[in-house]
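Exam review. A common question shows you a sequence with its structure tokens and asks you to describe the fold in words. Practice with the pair below. Do the first one on your own.
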Amino acid sequence: MFVKAFTKAVFALSISLATLAATEASADATLDRIKGRGKLTVGVILSGAPFGYIDPASQEQKGYNVDLAKALAADLGVELETVTVTPPNRVQFLQQGKVDILIANMQYTEDRAKILDYVATPYDRAGGAAVVRKDSGLKDWADLKGKPVCISQGSNYAQPLAEDYGAIVKGLPSQPESLLALQGGNCVAAVHVGATVGLLLVDRADEWKDYAIPFPTELIPSDSVIWLRKGEIDTQEALDNSVKKLHASGKLLEMAKANRLLNTKYLEEEKTKLSAAQ
């Protein structure tokens, strides 16, 4: 009986070790695979400036996240391929191997880190801003209690809006659809990354003349990080080195300013810190 039990235990341990070894081998092969095919495939969201959008004149992809993807590919010595993703499908695309990494407006959360790995050095820090009608009477986050608020599906703003402020959260497939719902009167506010909606009100002033961002603070400012599949240690380390170099050289800050990010304080601090560490 003991021999059988011992044999089963050894067999189970062997299977576990083999599985672990296969996982590590796969992880170790990821960066080699990217370099072998000469291409880094990045999932990006093209929902609007400053992070990602289609230039109407040239029909080219532009934005801070797109420029970051280009810089990472260049540092790895490979070409860039971008794949357009949306909040509902971005994680699925990554896990299915349709993209190597995500630079897709996904701030760090503990829940996300349970299913994905991420590059340790953030490339931005962003919080949520609420776009509301100027005549709504809404002045702060607490005023959203019991009221319908639109967000993108999968947004990390859903939990604090519902649990901390008592809002009735409505998830839409994308930011444009959320903002359209706001204009249609289906919600009293649309909450999205402050840099995006802030620039929207500036660039499309006529269309949004009746709307404003009146709340004095952003919702849960969080680190914007690059996401990748679990266990891809080599890729993770290589990209972290690249992001640190981009911070230290000031290139990330330059890209942010070129793309009109409204708040570059975090990037300025990282440039000072990481350039001093070199």
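Now try the second one, then compare your answer with the model answer below.
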Amino acid sequence: MTLKHELRAAMRALRKRLAEADPEAAERAAGHADAFPPGEIAALYRAMGSELDTDALANVLHRSGRRLCLPVVLERDAAMIFRAWAPGEPLELDAAGCPAPLPLADAVTPDLIVTPLLAFDALGGRLGQGGGYYDRTFAVLPDARRIGFAYAGQQVEQLDLEPHDIRLHGVLTETGYRAVP
């Protein structure tokens, strides 16, 4: 078992405990969305398991006039695409088994990509689930602002990043938005 695999397992367990201990964290985090960088189109995700839920954030961003979209996995080893979406619109499972907009939704290019994570550090390091979907997508959309969405308790001192790991520009938690210096 690799160190990264062990860290992922430990951080999944921690995130689950944080979710159980603070069911209102996502709502409080959404209250800090006004600190986000500018951008017309914001990509969110549909929370699975103990990921911080984006429903409240979607509503805040939608009411503020930002267009929303969700990622769609079409191929397992490729970058994701994004399709326009608004709260309440129907979803279907994509190739990775994640809720995604229907194929008839317009494909769009987001200015901001809000990403789930298992751990983050103050330098913008992000530990994801290990599938590489977000890093591949960040690589093909280098101008998009990359924002982690997590519990404050998911912060670690420092992550050991690999060459393909792409840093975040900031992280939004229930305690506020922090831009990466």
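Model answer, second protein: The longest helix spans residues 3-21. The CA atoms of residues 5 and 118 lie 11 Å apart. Full marks require stating both points clearly.
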